[in-house]
Amino acid sequence: MARNELRPIVRLRSTAGTGTTYVTRKNRRSDPDRMVLRKYDPVLRRHVEFREER
Protein backbone atom coordinates (compact mmCIF):
# COMPACT_ATOMS: atom_id res chain seq x y z
CA MET A 1 0.00 0.00 0.00
CA ALA A 2 1.21 3.45 -0.79
CA ARG A 3 1.59 6.02 1.95
CA ASN A 4 -1.34 8.15 0.77
CA GLU A 5 -3.71 5.18 0.70
CA LEU A 6 -2.96 4.14 4.28
CA ARG A 7 -3.02 7.61 5.87
CA PRO A 8 -5.28 9.84 3.77
CA ILE A 9 -5.80 13.55 4.40
CA VAL A 10 -9.28 14.22 5.82
CA ARG A 11 -11.16 17.46 6.42
CA LEU A 12 -13.03 17.94 9.69
CA ARG A 13 -16.01 20.32 9.58
CA SER A 14 -17.69 21.92 12.59
CA THR A 15 -21.09 20.51 13.54
CA ALA A 16 -22.13 23.97 14.77
CA GLY A 17 -22.58 25.16 11.19
CA THR A 18 -19.97 27.93 11.29
CA GLY A 19 -18.00 26.57 8.33
CA THR A 20 -14.79 26.15 10.32
CA THR A 21 -12.61 23.25 9.18
CA TYR A 22 -9.48 21.44 10.33
CA VAL A 23 -7.27 19.28 8.10
CA THR A 24 -5.56 16.18 9.47
CA ARG A 25 -4.48 12.65 8.54
CA LYS A 26 -5.95 9.42 9.82
CA ASN A 27 -4.98 5.77 9.84
CA ARG A 28 -7.53 3.71 7.90
CA ARG A 29 -6.53 0.42 9.55
CA SER A 30 -7.06 1.56 13.13
CA ASP A 31 -9.97 3.96 12.44
CA PRO A 32 -11.99 2.89 9.37
CA ASP A 33 -15.12 4.84 10.42
CA ARG A 34 -15.60 8.57 10.11
CA MET A 35 -13.61 10.60 12.60
CA VAL A 36 -15.31 12.72 15.27
CA LEU A 37 -13.07 15.00 17.34
CA ARG A 38 -13.88 17.69 19.87
CA LYS A 39 -11.88 20.77 18.83
CA TYR A 40 -11.92 24.54 19.27
CA ASP A 41 -14.18 26.60 16.98
CA PRO A 42 -12.80 30.17 16.84
CA VAL A 43 -16.07 31.60 15.53
CA LEU A 44 -18.05 30.36 18.55
CA ARG A 45 -15.03 30.59 20.89
CA ARG A 46 -15.72 27.18 22.39
CA HIS A 47 -15.08 23.49 21.80
CA VAL A 48 -17.54 21.62 19.57
CA GLU A 49 -17.57 18.33 17.68
CA PHE A 50 -15.90 18.22 14.30
CA ARG A 51 -16.89 15.39 11.94
CA GLU A 52 -15.02 14.01 8.97
CA GLU A 53 -16.45 14.94 5.60
CA ARG A 54 -15.67 13.14 2.36
From TrEMBL:
The keyword Ribonucleoprotein is assigned to this record: yes
Statement: the UniProt record of this protein carries the keyword Ribosomal protein: yes
Q: Which UniProt keywords apply?
A: Ribonucleoprotein, Ribosomal protein
Pfam families, sorted: Ribosomal_L33 (PF00471)
Q: Name one GO cellular component term.
A: ribosome
For this UniProt entry, which segments traverse the membrane? none
Q: Which family does it belong to?
A: Belongs to the bacterial ribosomal protein bL33 family.
Report what the protein is called: Large ribosomal subunit protein bL33
Which species does the entry assign this protein to? Pseudonocardia humida
Q: Which gene encodes it?
A: rpmG
